[in-house]
Amino acid sequence: MKYTTCVSIANQSPEAILLQIDEVLKSSKYVELRLDYLKSTDDVMYLLKKATPYMGNVICTLRPKREGGLYDGTESQRIQLLKTISEYKPYLLDVEYSTIAKTNLADDLLSDIMVSWHDFEGTPKLNTLIHQMNQMADYSNVVKIATFAKSTMDVAKVLALYAHAKTPSLVAFAMGNTGRYSRLCAMHMGSPFMYVYVGKAVAPGQYSLQDVRKIEEEGVL
């Protein structure tokens, strides 16, 4: 099976990111730009302008600290920046459910969005996850749910979401070493892409792009 990948790029240097984008897109369909890793709004704007030719293959993420990211500005500043990012029409703009559900932001964005929800502490009951997924689907056709797996049962609960999905594009997987293989399984269950890394993992349990390509070559899954 050929896995559609999205390489997460998290770097403080806009110039270094631009070099990575050009190189990574030679072997990965998508890249995720973790814009919250940049030091300033000016750096974000510089990168967006320079990366405009690639935007059809870019997922932009501006994750706040409360959601495991690095952005430390005010929420109003972040929302305004999200609106600006959307003007560059990335393939997807990742917006947290906690943000989209409390504002009218979805109406103001000019790009397609992926509504995301993370639980870095554990994995709720399946009924809770299904309810969460259905609420998120009210805002976008692309929904991302990632929980931390402490057991194989946690992994099973997350993967079970694919049998209940009402949205065309569900990206659901379990984080951490225990849940690592769920990232591969999710692709067989309908996930449109899987997050991978080049160099250093951005999230717990990520496979490297090299690992995934080797799995493809071996034909083991």
Average pLDDT score:
96
The rough form would be described as: globular
Q: Taking strands numbered 1, 2, ... along the chain, how are they ordered across the largest sheet?
A: 7-6-5-4-3-2-1-8-9
What is the architecture at the second tier of CATH? Answer: Alpha-Beta Barrel
Count of discrete structural domains: 1
CATH H level, superfamily name:
Aldolase class I
Roughly how much helix do the residues carry, as a percent range? 25-40%
Give an overview in words:
By secondary structure, this protein is of the alpha/beta class. The chain has one domain: TIM Barrel (Alpha-Beta Barrel), CATH 3.20.20.70. Helices cover 35% and strands 21% of the residues. The protein contains 9 helices and 9 strands. It has a 9-stranded parallel β-sheet with strand order 7-6-5-4-3-2-1-8-9. Helix 1 links the parallel strand 1 and strand 2 (30-34). Helix 1 (14-24) packs parallel to helix 2. It is globular, with a radius of gyration of 17 Å. The model has no long low-confidence stretch (mean pLDDT 96).
